[in-house]
Task: structure prediction
Amino acid sequence: MAGTLAEKVWEAHLVRRAEGEPDLLYIDLHLLHEVTSPQAFDGLRLEGRTVRRTDLTLATEDHNVPTTPGPIVDPVSLTQVETLRRNCAEFGVPLYPMGDVEQGIVHVVGPQLGLTQPGMTIVCGDSHTSTHGAFGALAFGIGTSEVEHVLATQTLPLQPFRTMAVNVRGALPDGVTAKDVVLAVIAKIGTGGGQGYVIEYRGEAIESLSMEARMTICNMSIEAGARAGMIAPDEVTFDYLEGRDRAPKGADWDAAVAAWRQLRTDDDAVFDAEVDLDATTLSPFVTWGTNPGQGLPLSASVPDPDRIVDETERADTERALAYMGLEPGTPLKEIPVDTVFVGSCTNGRIEDLRAAAGVLSGRRVADGVRMLVVPGSARVRVQAEAEGLHEVFEAAGAEWRLPGCSMCLAMNPDKLAAGERSASTSNRNFEGRQGPGGRTHLVSPLVAAATAVRGTLSSPADLDKD
Amino acid sequence: MDAFTTHTGIGVPLRRSNVDTDQIIPAVYLKRVSRDGFEDGLFAAWRTDESFVLNNPRYAAGSVLVAGPDFGTGSSREHAVWALMNYGFRVVLSSRFADIFRGNSGKQGLLTAQVAQDDIELIWKYLEQEPGAQVTVDLAARTVTAGDIVAPFGVDDYTRWRLMEGLDDIGLTLRHEDLIEEFESGRAAYLPVTR
Result:
């Protein structure tokens, strides 16, 4: 029977299927971090259970870690990190702690090690696990009870997903990046538009993207409500993986690539839903509101609630504008920011840092603007320094930090103060996400860097006019 | 997990859509390593607003939350479910739930009952006219009753069965350990390991 990519990966991991019950699926890789795992280990301890496959489990410290040198100061953050260390030691789970060269944001670490491979099932107690779908893996976030379930059984009972194709047709114009594409997708289908679906991103614009750009797209699938996002593996995928530490070698590599080439949606397969986007019409995209679906092209203006017919949407818009401190009709390019954040599992990889550095080279961050550049992993930091990118950031007046989740969710000391406004390459502009009362505009690394220079939301094209 | 058959408690009208898990419990409250005590972080930002519904003493002891569409979007944090349950909620009604939140709820015994938005609007009006009024949720009959309003709700059969029996997922899966072993023996040799 014809199948989609998602259905093929699903079927290949079926441990048990019974009428009226969810399918039981095998999990190939389980990633852990300090925030969503302590209660799961506690549950194992209470029941006298062990971790079934420590060799398919990997932990890293990311959400709480400070991005300036020195120990964790906040005692509660420290407790969480120390609890992870104790749990990993007790249950035999490999861990990359702060200071280790393999440490970093969990969704940056897996791919760069070559652990994330096509056709795998990957879970983590973190909704941005969808990132790994860029390799043609079925990867999704789970809750702490499910973390405990996977630790104990290496399986998960799962209700079937529906499948959605997002077709991005045509070529992307210059200066339009993966972040702009995914923000446009979310604005089009809404934060609930993908609910119940696994999205497969397809089309010329997607195929032309690098692996890191594909990760940015799949990363934000959850912001459209989708459980996972996937992209069929191709030569770009295989080239990225070949030679990485945990990628197959020798005869195993050949066998793996032969299997991976089968991981495509059949021509006659039918998706439950299809969405089309014309890449040629896209431009740099930013959010103006308090959910990732509230976005517009950078050239647009703040929307006017009075022009919205739907009562709930109008109320949502009014509330969002009040929180964001924005007036209807203000051109987005006239919105000034205090802070620019480049980093996160969405845009904290080497290509993102190169893009931001390319814009900042020979320029200065505007007076009164603070810019933080936080690499997604220790390896990304090492690579960036080898390329001299840190010197570009520091010469421009930006702060070059240690790796972690940082200001994406402000669990560490990197926060916005109440009323402060950021242009951020992260994934969520929810109220208070970057600090209580903080206001977030989601942007690409290119827009972030140009905004830092001009002090108002801007694209690199605006700099050329200055 | 306690078995769930019917529940009657004060209904709380939360006239908001897209209530994300960062609103249910902000990240700053996620640093604990236990499963209890999260009620102080529930809707933390909104509770500073005097007009917020839970700050009205008539609703403060609520246990049935009646919310707008797309409840529980965003982060996968199960702390959102713990915060709701630690506070005293046993049921959330919405016309649409985010997937991860709904899954997390089912595992902890918080019922996410899917009610048509038209019925949500009626229940909102009733609860606003009668602050402190009780709502009854009958999982066997799949109905919610508020005053004269009787509305059907959706919940998948398997979650309903597990909630009504109070069953633990891991225990259920471990009954099939032989099938897990059989699957493991057939996995491809090239698949990666973490050590």
